[in-house]
Amino acid sequence: MFKTVLFPIDQSREAREAADFVANVVKTYNSRLVILSVVEQTSPETDVMSSVEAVAKLLQGAKALFSQQGIQAEMVEREGMPSFTICDVADEIGADLIIMGCRGLGLTSEGATESVTTRVINLSPCPVLIVP
């Protein structure tokens, strides 16, 4: 049913808590798991290298967590606006499901009134499962 699952992550507690649910779905449906992290450059003064290093460390940690559960995960790192990038990657990889936590690390430049989660739900090319 869910051949490819996309799991966008950040350093939030909600993303960490969603990982157990993701593992359950991936094991149940024998799905391909793609873990995505998006680097968002907020201003020209932002140190992109430290952001890239933090994302690489985050992805490696997530891959190790799933590996301990016998799940092979692919890692994708992109730069851009999170909601649009998540939907673009879902389309590129042919995702059947996006699983994400209900909150990220806070407000982004995308605006205070519309969260990344809300935008992904509205723009996604596939079903989105939100883990509270």
TrEMBL record:
InterPro entries: Rossmann-like_a/b/a_fold, Universal_stress_UspA, UspA. Residues 1-132 form the UspA domain. It holds the Pfam family Usp. Transmembrane segments: none annotated. SUPFAM superfamilies: Adenine nucleotide alpha hydrolases-like. It comes from the Bacteria. Belongs to the universal stress protein A family. This is Universal stress protein.
